[in-house]
Amino acid sequence: MRMVVLGGAGAMGMVTTRDLAESPAVSEVILCDANMERAKEVAGWVASDKLSIRRVDIASQESLVDAVRDADAVANATPYHLNLVVTKSAIKAGKDLTDLGGVYYMTLKQLKLDKVAKETGVTVVLGCGVAPGIADVLAKYGADKLDRVKEVHIRYGEVNLTPAKYKWTFRTVLEEYTRGPVIYQSGKFKRLPPFSGKHTVMFPEPVGKRSCCYALYSGLATLPTTINKGVQMVDCAMSYTDEDEQRIQVLKEMGLTNPKPIVVKGVKMPPREFLLQVAPPPDMKVKDVASIVVEVFGEKEGESTKCTYSLVYQYHKKYGVSALSYLTGVPLSIVSQMLAKGDIEQKGVLPPETAIKPEPFIKELGRRRIEINETITRTHML
């Protein structure tokens, strides 16, 4: 199989690239990125004769189409704001595609391309990381075991063992913390202010008790519909620190998150874009522990039933990358290989929970020592 990784030199894409190169079924991996210096470093880190690098201008559809022309599948690990142009390019090239999610609003735009993808015979699987990704597959997996579903709660928590301000692109951080979360409650979508829904979640040790707030989450765009079964509540919350909240508040007060252009010494630019340009890259080698917990509440054969799924993972010593990078990059590799092998037959723009068969996916995660724990509890209804 010939695989292309867009953004393969990034914090998540580098893991996808290496996992693909280490997979026996993959014969060739093309790492595509705009930063050739960084791409060369990653190529040295992967150290595989299967790997080649190529400079690609993501903003140019012609450059993208040319880069993916001979691929069996394309893994898109570029920042979320590029997802739409990448999706359109993959459809134009007739190539199956995976990505890491669109932070809700971009996902809604991508889903509108479902019809043209079907007509072209292309499969696009959205949000193939840890959350979105693993978490959504587990949510649907639990829901499918119930007769009725009342609530679905997705929780992500982490602990940094070495200092780190953030571990993914700062553009995503800004989007999540300034636009505010969306939840599905009482059968309706609700937009809430940033840092809403603060509460404490107990994750598996050694993550333990963490403060969480609602997140702007790609899965909210699809899970209420794909789960159905009368579900009235779907939400996602992620751990945060007081420092996270204070940092964003200071940036907002200084006007640096404003998307409206201003003129400074004859140069017109939005303060937000300036901030994104000067922000340092994410820390991909921080030592950390990350966890997800997915709870599905409902009924089975007249009994109240709760399906709980969890995983906990420490930073990857062999790769020398954070748990977040590994848990995000590996699923993208797995699903991309499923596409290339023809294991996902449905065409169109699909969320992970409907495109990915849970059992083989969980098995592939287990092969990489990402273990999923399942607990099902049932209580007789009075």
Sketch the major β-sheet: 9 strands, mixed
In the CATH classification, which architecture of the largest domain applies? 2-Layer Sandwich
What is the CATH top level name of the largest domain? Alpha Beta
Radius of gyration: 20 Å
Q: Indicate the proportion of strand residues.
A: 25-35%
**CATH homologous superfamily caption of the largest domain:** Dihydrodipicolinate Reductase, domain 2
Please report the distance between the alpha carbons of the first and last residues.
55 Å
Helix proportion range: 25-40%
CATH T-level fold name of the largest domain:
Dihydrodipicolinate Reductase, domain 2
Mean pLDDT over the full residue set:
95
Shape: globular
Q: How many distinct domains?
A: 2
Low-confidence stretches: none
**Alpha plus pi helix count:** 14
Strand tally = 18
Structure, explained:
- Strands 7, 8, 9, 10, 11, 12, 15, 16 and 18 form a 9-stranded mixed β-sheet that branches. This protein has a 7-stranded parallel β-sheet with strand order 3-2-1-4-5-6-17, with helices on both faces.
- It is of the alpha/beta class and 382 residues long.
- The longest helix has 19 residues, at 323-341.
- The protein has helices at 13-21, 36-46, 61-68, 83-93, 105-111, 114-120, 134-143, 170-178, 223-227, 242-253, 271-278, 323-341, 352-355, 358-367; strands at 2-6, 28-33, 51-55, 73-76, 97-99, 123-125, 148-160, 182-185, 188-191, 199-202, 209-214, 233-239, 262-264, 267-269, 288-300, 303-314, 348-350, 373-380.
- The mean pLDDT is 95.
- It has 2 domains: 2-129 and 323-367, NAD(P)-binding Rossmann-like Domain (Rossmann fold), CATH 3.40.50; 134-318 and 370-380, Dihydrodipicolinate Reductase, domain 2, CATH 3.30.360.10.
